[in-house]
Amino acid sequence: MRASPRFYLLVGIPGSGKSTYARRHLGQALRLSLDDLRLMLTGVAYDSRYESIVIGVGHAALDYMLSRAATWQRDILLDATNATRERRKHYLQLAERHGLPTVAVFLDCPLEMALARDRARPGGVGDEVVTRYFAQLQPPTAEEGFAELIHVTDCGA
Ligand SMILES: Nc1ncnc2c1ncn2[C@@H]1O[C@H](COP(=O)(O)OP(=O)(O)OP(=O)(O)O)[C@@H](O)[C@H]1O
Ligand SMILES: [Mg+2]
To answer: Which ligand does the CA of 23 lie closest to?
Structure first.
């Protein structure tokens, strides 16, 4: 096990392969998934009326996990789209406060491939949502202050 834990911040549009990548390559990390949290709290995959609650609970849980990571000697992973710089900045600052280096993992996925994967999976979010995220996405850059930026091309294929 690594001596000092790291914070893995996934970045990618719906269907880009974030959760699959996390399972395959970062299985050692304690994973906080906002999608799982949505389902757990509300019983549905997504409902905009509950979004502020989901984000609030997620932030509180992440804050606690980051605060305990050194004691637990475990990496922490946030599985969410994290599509905007503003959102990522918040998490970067949180990790910094707890002394953890942040590693961004960017699932760089062409729109067509994300759409195809989303259509093929049960409970996909739909073309409109995938396309909207694709338009919003601000690819992560080194200037944001990551200790490392892992660029996964072709949605991890
Ligand atoms: N490397 C891969 N090769 C083939 N299929 C993949 C790969 N990665 C993911 N998939 C498939 O693509 C679909 C979307 O993957 P996944 O659920 O990991 O995406 P996601 O980014 O976590 O999406 P969301 O933001 O909606 O949670 C799934 O059906 C998954 O099985
Ligand atoms: Mg996922």
So the answer is: 1
7-156 maps to CATH 3.40.50.300: yes
Enter the pTM of the model.
0.95
Strand blocks (E) in the chain: 7-11, 30-33, 76-79, 102-107, 148-152
Nearest-CA residue for atom 16 of ligand 1: 17
Share of the chain above pLDDT 70, in %: 99
| Maximum CA extent, the chain | 43
In sequence order, the 6+-apart residues with CB closer than 8 A to the CB of 134 are 13, 111, 114
Say how many Å lie between the CA of residue 33 and the centre of ligand 2.
7
Report the run of H or E that residue 23 belongs to, with start and end. Answer: helix 18-25
**Of 13, 11, 9, residue with least CA distance to 117:** 13
Structure confidence at residue 157 as a pLDDT band (50, 70, 90)? confident
Tokens of 122: 């049960």
Contacts of 35 (CB under 8 A, 6+ apart): 19, 45, 79, 80
Query: What average pLDDT does range 136-154 have in this prediction?
Result: 97
Looking at the predicted structure, is the pLDDT value of residue 149 above 60?
Answer: yes
